[in-house]
Amino acid sequence: MSKIRKRIKEIRVPRIPLAKPPTILLMFLMVSISIFILGGGIYDIMLTPINILPTPTQPIFYYPGMTEQTMTESINFVFYLIIGVLGGYITFQSTRFVYRPREARMYLVIGIVMMIFAFIGCETLLAAKGV
Fold this sequence. Notes:
It is a single chain. This protein is mainly α. Helix content is 64%, strand content 0%. It has five helices and no strands. α2 (23-38) runs antiparallel to α4 and α4 packs antiparallel against α5 (101-129).
C-alpha cells in the first residue's frame, strides 16, 4: 500500500500555461458591458424599438413614461454614460500629476465638468420622458 502512495505522490500533472489577459482590457470589458446593460442594450436587442414616434404635428424622440424607450433614447443615454465614465477616469488621472499642480487641476476640472455634463444630460433625458 505504501508503494502505491509513493507512486501516486510522484505523479506530476503537467501545467498548461494560460495567458493572463491584461488588467486594462478586463476593466474596459467590464465597463463596456455595464454601460451596454445600463443603456438598455438588452431591451433594444429583445424588442427592437422604433427610432422616432410618429405624431401628426412633430416627431417625438422620447417615449413618455418609464416602461418603454425608443432607440434614440438608448443611444443618448449610452452617450451620457460614456461621457460620465470618461470624466471619472480623467479625474482619476489627475492624481498622477502630483508635482505638476497646474496639469492636475486642469485634469480635475475637465473630469468634473464631463461628469456634471453627463449628470445633467441624464436628468434632462428623464425630464423629457415626463418622469
